[in-house]
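My current task is to audit a protein record that another person submitted. Alongside the sequence sits a line of tokens, each denoting a local backbone shape. Where you disagree with what is written, explain briefly why. This is what I was given:
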Amino acid sequence: MWNKNVEVFMGCDKDEGQADTILFGAPFDCTTSYRPGARFGSGAIRHESYGLETYSPYQDRDLEDTNVLDIGDLELCLGDTVKALSQIESCASQILADGKRPFLLGGEHLVTLGAFRAAFSRYPDLHVIHFDAHADLREEYLGTPLSHACVLRRCHELTGDGRIHQFGIRSGDRSEFLWGKDHVDTTRFGFHGLEELLEKLGDTPVYFTLDLDVLDPSVFPGTGTPEPGGVSFDELRKAATLVCRKARIVACDVNELSPPYDPSGISAAAACKIVREMLIGLSSTK
């Protein structure tokens, strides 16, 4: 069913029938408005994962004991944003139809929209938990509604009010914040209230989208739109693990690693560790 000729994220090579989470990449950055390069993020995360151990001392669990299959990157139509999103949606829909959880590696943040559409079609009561430096709530950016700066606004068109919960936000156009006050729940600068939200959501299906630029650029410089004043690695690790362990996540993504802007590899290593902790956290709910 899937292309086997891929470099997989460490430990994520379980048999398709055994897997409960399917990892796949969306190497797309055609709407990036500042510094391109996020299309190389998913490949870098896989390649650099072999510099880390599969065992997590934070959770005292091992990725080898999880049921995750990495099917590699999609071959996306980079010249056609609508078609690329449709390709992502189709893959995520197939994974969901097979009773498994899609875990998308970006790519720029717009790739979320494809996987989110697939999840929303299956779970119309879906909520979104969104970690990011940027609100991503613009109606349009540079004349197009399909931009990484608009992705959560497009998700809101499906969910309606009160079902998008943002954390870590510290940047955006004034109009985004004014509009957001009436339509989404936004927590600025950190993760205050996250535990209370998870308790409130209970068994509600959740789409979890994590833009890695929520991290401070001093620890994560390899991203297209760095924003000073972000959270620390450990703050993000704890928050992401908490979401993965406590929420009913039916689909998720990690995006916006842009390896060309960090030749040291520190950003890729941070992304790998976050993905590892998320995968282990997700497996604890099974």
Q: What stands out?
A: The domain at 21-283 is CATH 3.40.800.10 (Arginase; Chain A). The mean pLDDT is 95. Residues 102 and 132 are 20 Å apart (CA to CA).
